[in-house]
From TrEMBL:
Pfam families associated with the record: Epimerase
Cross-referenced PANTHER family: BIFUNCTIONAL POLYMYXIN RESISTANCE PROTEIN ARNA, NAD(P)-BINDING DOMAIN-CONTAINING PROTEIN
Entries under InterPro entries matching the protein: Epimerase_deHydtase, Lipid_A_modif_metabolic_enz, NAD(P)-bd_dom_sf
Protein known as: Nucleoside-diphosphate-sugar epimerase
Xref: Gene3D superfamilies: NAD(P)-binding Rossmann-like Domain (3.40.50.720)
NAD-dependent epimerase/dehydratase domain location: 9-191
Organism of origin: Pedococcus dokdonensis
Source organism superkingdom: Bacteria
Length: 291
């Protein structure tokens, strides 16, 4: 943590698959974490407040130190809470929950003078499930979002909303992390089964993000000091497959431009910008967990 890093951070979605890693990682790195979620985390004894983020008043109270027993205002927010994929509930319910939660977090932070926000966008804005092939690989942040579901549409709108919040406040630092498919070490036993059929995981170009590396990206986002809104693709350095990335592209997306020579298992979800501007360096690979 640098001297300019925020110290007391609220994490929304703290009880979720990614949130659990983020809370643990930030605490390990010396941050005071206030966990916020609709449901209590299964395995945490740290400060927690149950909040429905679709209620603006609850968000303001939680972030401002207004909740009894949690009287300290936070100086940064990590916003992860969401219905985390298309098709888990109706499109309208996904949109209503996710858009209201994100607006309320961004607006409450603005009202309270909190100027560091890191939030979860999604790889889906890159055009998943790539029924229309990607424009080129590795895909990156350089082309306009191509949401193909209501869930993804909302993530794309959140990125646009963040740009306007930054326009309204030139000192605001907002970092949107377009996470790939979040994985825990327990998930890796299934990975070798993907090899038989490239079609099984072509929907996200065979990408993934280890929850611990996702947490690293969140911390690096909190350490960013450059005002304005930036979005980053966050994936692991390799794919989920044993076959080479070049081989997979040639078979499954033969017409798509491969923009550079690829490392054998190099991710097709480009993380160059995150490496360059955040110092992101994925430390984990499923290959270290499976014989
Ligand atoms: N899981 C993935 O593969 C993936 C991929 C890309 C992006 N993301 C994004 O990352 C974030 C975290 O995803 P996850 O996999 O940990 O999801 P998760 O479902 O495991 O966790 C999300 C948490 O948000 C909470 N939540 C949802 N709506 C809420 C509300 N209105 N008020 C309070 N809490 C609320 C839920 O209770 C849950 O604990 C989400 O924004 C998701 O869209 C996830």
């Amino acid at each position: 943590m640098s001297s300019t890093s925020p110290r007391r951070v609220a994490v929304t979605g703290a009880s979720g698959k990614l949130g659990r890693h983020v809370v643990a990682h930030l605490a390990e790195h010396g941050y005071d974490v206030l966990a916020l979620d609709r449901v209590r985390p299964a395995d945490s004894s740290g400060p927690f407040v149950a909040v429905d983020l679709t209620d603006y008043g609850q968000v303001v109270e939680a972030l401002s130190g207004g909740v009894d027993e949690h009287p300290v205002a936070v100086d940064a927010v990590v916003h992860l809470a969401a219905v985390p994929a298309p098709g888990l509930t109706t499109n309208a319910a996904t949109f209503a929950n996710n858009s209201a939660a994100t607006y309320n977090v961004f607006a409450a932070a603005r009202a309270l003078g909190i100027r560091r926000i890191v939030w979860a966008s999604s790889e889906t804005v890159l055009g998943l499930p790539f029924e229309t092939p990607p424009p080129y690989v590795p895909v990156d942040e350089e082309y306009h979002p191509r949401p193909e579901s209501t869930y993804s549409l909302n993530k794309a709108l959140e990125e646009e909303m963040a740009r306007h919040f930054c326009r309204w406040d030139p000192e605001l630092v907002m970092v949107g992390l377009r996470f790939s498919n979040v994985m825990d070490p327990d998930d890796y036993a299934a990975f070798p089964s993907f090899d038989a059929d490239p079609a099984l995981r072509q929907w996200n170009l065979w990408g993934y993000i280890d929850g611990r590396d996702g947490a690293q990206a969140v911390r690096l986002g909190l350490e960013r000091t450059e005002p304005g809104c930036e979005v980053f693709v966050i994936a692991n350095a390799d794919t989920v497959m044993s076959r080479s990335s070049a081989d997979l592209m040639a078979e499954v997306f033969p017409g798509v431009e491969v923009r550079r020579e690829l490392g054998e298992h190099e991710t097709l979800l480009g993380i160059d910008k995150a490496r360059r501007l955040l110092g992101y360096q994925p430390a984990h690979s499923w290959r270290d967990h499976v014989d």
